[in-house]
Design goal:
Number of domains: 1
Helix content: 40-55%
Number of helices: 5
Radius of gyration: 13 Å
Shape: globular
Distance between the termini: 38 Å
Number of strands: 6
Strand order of the largest sheet: 1-4-5-6
Largest sheet: 4 strands, parallel
CATH superfamily: Response regulator
CATH class: Alpha Beta
């Protein structure tokens, strides 16, 4: 569907019935690279944060956030900026940085 619609934004649940949201983000971006994806999760799990950003997501939000916060996150990623929910703390971000460095996405 993303190939036909070329969405500007995509909101993807991290835990989908048929797999991880990070795989869905990769599939969306493969056919619609200009789409900005925001992943929603129940918790700020370090592996989920790392997987979401490694898949190409522009943002990571928590399902416990208010609607206005999610809208603000969408506006931020639509503007080309990354977004990380306030509930995602340093250990989760550190895990993403380590993964990104291992994969050559960031310089040490």
């Amino acid at each position: 569907m993303a190939a036909a619609l070329k969405p500007v934004l995509a909101v993807v649940d991290m835990m989908l019935p048929d797999g991880l949201g990070s795989a869905a983000v990769q599939q969306i971006l493969a056919v619609s690279p200009a789409t900005a994806a925001l992943v929603l999760s129940d918790s700020p799990d370090a592996d989920e944060v790392a997987d979401a950003f490694a898949a190409g997501s522009m943002g990571f939000a928590l399902k416990t956030q208010r609607g206005a916060e999610i809208v603000a996150a969408l506006r931020r990623i639509r503007g080309g900026h990354r977004y990380v929910a306030p509930g995602v703390v340093a250990p989760e971000l550190a895990a993403y940085v380590r993964l990104a460095m291992r994969n050559g996405l960031l310089d040490g």
